[in-house]
Amino acid sequence: MRLHRLDLNLLIMLDILIAEGSVSQTAQRLGMTQPAISNALARLRVHFDDELFILLDRRMVPTPLCESLAEPVRRIIGELSIIAAARAGFDPATADRTVTIICSDYVFLVFLAEVLREISVAAPSLKIRTLLTSEHMGELLRSGRADFCIVPQQRKVEGLPSAPLFEDGFSVICWTGNDKVSSPMSVEQYLALKHVSTSIGPHTPPHIEQESLDRYDIERDIAVYAPNFTGVAEVVCGTDHIATMHSRAAEILARRMDLKILAPPVEINPFTVCLQWNQAMEADPGLAWVKAFILERAGRMNEPAPQTGRAPVDA
């Protein structure tokens, strides 16, 4: 489709290029070749009579005109996505469409996997695509390329509506054969042992439990960063390492592996996991059904978290 001689498909590429600052990464996200992205950028430069990007420290930095286009382009793409997904009604028994949800592997493990099993029965032709949380989460929601995200309250996308799903706390896990750990665990033990944690990405903030640990000036000796929480548990098994993780995840993983669960030696604040969505999508009956389904399933998780992570300070 063209408007004032501009191919509107080029705006999708421009939106991603502004976010990524890289032709190669934009090509990867769109499943296109780098020459195709370069050709599209050349056409945009001709249309707007502007360079749009300049190369600075190996990153493409938007020009002032390009920066001024970022927000309206993102908004237009979001509105076009709504139009494209519009339905007169929604019948879950026959609906054939794709819904995209952003979440961490923790949320997938303790909550979303069960939700998807139930959705597969209620809406057998509905396709669910999940993406891991990243620094692009807000951009994906606002542009309509993602429909929902499920994140801790502390990590919500600013300016988007949300609803609480469930609460969780923190626990310490260790291998059942680890004889260096006693119960209750002392602060001295916690500091002396090596830890396993996760690394989500270079631009993400510290894990939320660190905010509580900082109150006690606790700095963990992290020996291994795993790509996800299941990987954390796999590393802990068979070693003297320990890990601090969400209590609901610890309970599930302890049923699958040789792990024991302990209370942390200091109080770690519990947290609330929230569902977020783009307010512009609320008129879509299909997404409204999915949102209601997720909220109803979360209502069955009202029991307290398995372990709130509260323990007296030993020091």
Structure description:
With 315 residues, the protein is of the alpha/beta class. It folds into 3 domains: 84 residues, Orthogonal Bundle (Arc Repressor Mutant, subunit A); 81 residues, 3-Layer(aba) Sandwich (D-Maltodextrin-Binding Protein, domain 2), CATH 3.40.190.10; 95 residues, D-Maltodextrin-Binding Protein, domain 2 (3-Layer(aba) Sandwich). 40% of the residues lie in helices and 22% in strands. It has 11 helices and 14 strands. Strands 6-5-7-14-8 form a 5-stranded mixed β-sheet, covered by helices on one side. The termini are far apart. The C terminus is likely disordered.
CATH class type of the largest domain: Alpha Beta
Unreliable sequence segments: 307-315
Count of helical regions: 11
Q: What is the overall shape?
A: globular
Number of strands: 14
Please indicate the percent range of residues in DSSP E strands (runs of 2 or more): 15-25%
Average pLDDT metric = 87
CATH architecture of the largest domain: 3-Layer(aba) Sandwich
Largest sheet: 5 strands, mixed
Structural class: alpha/beta
CATH fold-level topology of the largest domain: D-Maltodextrin-Binding Protein, domain 2
